[in-house]
Amino acid sequence: MLFLEEAYQAKLTRAYDLRSVVIEEVSQYYEGDRAVYLQPTERLSRVRCTNIAEKRPSVQVADRVFAWRADHAEQQHVQFEGFVHRLEAEALLILFCADFHAKNPPGTLMNVSFGAERLTMRCMHRAIDEVGLDVVWPTKATQPLSQDQMRELDAYAASLDLPDEMNDQQRFTVASLLRKDHGSTPFLLYGPFGTGKTRTLIEFLKLLLGPNAEAKVPASNREPRVLVCSPSNSSVDMYVSQLASVVGSPSEMHRIMAPHRGPIYNRELAPYTRFDAAAGMHRLPEMAELLQMKVVVCTTRMAAALCARGVPKGHFTHIVLDEAAQLMEAEALLPLSLADKHTSVVMAGDPKQLGPSTFSNTRKSVHGVHASVMERLQALDAYQQRMPSVCQNLVKNYRSHPAIVRLLSKISYNGKL
């Protein structure tokens, strides 16, 4: 199915190929209000692409582009390979070979073809090969908690130093995660928008990583090493901002950035990134330093960089995957391939909201890539009894008008919201 998804991606990307366009030579471009002047040996090429802001095509920095003269017969044309250097509002800056414009004088009409980015798919294939499916796709859950254990858990939840606005469900979830009642079975935290899923995970991590954690956290969870992932940059940036108050030193937390992203000017985030100004790219810390980090925060896609660097499976005691209902199973395996049977895996999301963004049209198939990781997991026997030790459904909405909550509760959530 993943190969089919990649084939559809390539097909849809090629649908936006350009015909008979002019590729102009560029000696300077602007980054905001700052002009960047290029050396004669560093000349770039600009091609107009008016729909680029709408991701039509979906192009990223370093993607491959092919160009050839429009007046040449197809069997005779010479293709020039280039790489996307920068995305502008309605154009692409592309790096071709040094003699590209010498061979194609100004005004020459060119055809341009976009190549689908394959690295992410290759990382997913590797994750599928390396992940312990019996660990992250359990066949059975842990034993249900007895009445005495439930009362003990309630008392433990009441004793935690949590903000007063957190409700009983959230407190119970934090306590259960700290005690690791779910064992090796991934814990699923459901909840519609505005019910505080991310807030619950942040408060859990604050207690887990805080200066007085040893007094609050059971002995099995001491010396934590946490990997926090989410599909979006805005989500993971919020985790860095919130956890900075308890982690403190940049030597204990690192925010992995995509290499091609520019420098970070946010004062809260910048200390936790490694931007190499000379190379103009973000870098990972050295392996020894990376393994000493208490917290590593990154997008789901960039979790593959940890596998490529050689971080051993089982290094992280906790892997937290937020907005997991937006991920294909193969995407979720990028961070989960670092889990072993001792790793505490926590996923949060709402399968009733936006699901995975896919290219293929296999939605009628029960094995289609459109199914999110949380949808697949909740259908397993391990979650059929909906035991609170392995899953929790938050229902109290904090940020919507009551009329909206009532309507959506009736339409999508069986009146439980």
Radius of gyration: 24 Å
Largest sheet: 7 strands, parallel
Please report the total strand number as a whole number.
17
**N-to-C terminal Cα separation, in Å?**
35 Å
Unreliable runs: none
User: Reading side by side through the largest sheet, how are the strands ordered?
Assistant: 11-14-10-15-16-9-17
The number of helical segments is 14
- Mean pLDDT equals 84
- Proportion of residues in extended strands: 15-25%
Helix content: 25-40%
**SS-derived structural category:** alpha/beta
Shape: elongated
Jot down its keywords.
417 residues; alpha/beta; seven-stranded parallel sheet; six-stranded antiparallel barrel; 14 helices; 17 strands; 30% helix; elongated
Task: Describe this structure as you would to a colleague.
The structure is a single chain. With 417 residues, the protein is an alpha/beta fold. The protein is built from 14 helices and 17 strands. The protein has helices at 2-14, 100-103, 119-130, 133-136, 147-159, 168-179, 197-209, 213-216, 233-247, 287-291, 303-309, 329-336, 373-378, 402-412; strands spanning 18-26, 28-31, 34-37, 44-48, 64-69, 80-87, 91-95, 109-114, 187-190, 226-230, 253-255, 275-276, 281-282, 295-299, 318-321, 344-349, 391-393. β6 (80-87) and β7 (91-95) form a beta hairpin. α3 crosses α12 (329-336), α5 (147-159) crosses α6 (168-179) and α7 (197-209) packs parallel to α9. The model has no long low-confidence stretch (mean pLDDT 84).
